[in-house]
Amino acid sequence: MMSRDFSNLQTVAVVTDSVAQVPDADAERLGVSIVPFSVHIENEEFLDGVDLPPRLLYQRMREEKIVPRTSAPSPADYLNVFRSHLNKGIQAIIHLSLSSKLSSAYNNACEAAKRACEEFPGRSVVVIDTLLAAIPQGFIVMAAAKKALKGETLSEILQSVKKSIHQCGLAATLGTLEYLARGGRIGKAAFLLGSMVKIKPILTLEEGVVFPIRNVRTEKRALEAIINYVAKKLQGHKNFQVAILEADDAERALVLRDLVLEKLNPAKIIQTEFTPVMGVHTGPGLVGLAYFHD
What we know:
This protein is α/β, with parallel strands linked by helices. Helices cover 38% and strands 25% of the residues. The longest helix is centred in the middle third of the chain and has 16 residues, at 134-149.
């Protein structure tokens, strides 16, 4: 969890969970509080983004064939963060949650928000189901936090969030669908399970669940399909940023980055390892590209 002192101008605080993959430096700079998920490996518990390096997790999944579990923050975890802001005089909190169709996190945050408003009459704690995950969720968080720093009102920021949710997305290819299926998060891509031999599915999130875009048969075509999908989504937009995602596949991530530089012209490129709590459900070998446009 991260928190900071707020300027006299700022009346709204922005909170999210570790699945959003907001880079540590940006979270600190923008005053975003991060509530970590937990990753359970046998009898050990780790906090996502705090004490479990992604590379170590993916190495153990490959070599030791471990089957990690994840758990969302509890209502008490969220409530502690909400209280810390309200005790500092913040008048309103926006919590931007992982898709409610992928986790209990949204419901837990809603319960905490209700309790926080009962404890602090006259204050507001609003929980938004972004229907997103990973860095697209993080893009929305960072955009909202910038507006909060400028002193914009709760209503103004919520209006902007509602719009920006439709300005981002991602496309990714997985090493296997096994992990998504095992965790029950395979969504509308379930029909692909019986035909995975020599097929590289390209997936996205649509309406908060995993959704297949297309299937290809080679690694090269998979990366090209990702670029083509994102390029189509960005058509007509000049000011946009992208993020390259990878789960223990730095080599293919570099190839994807070269394709981004060749075929797109982003204002900014972020490169990030897929957060462990998401990697548990996608498995090693994920490579993807996220985008956010004005």
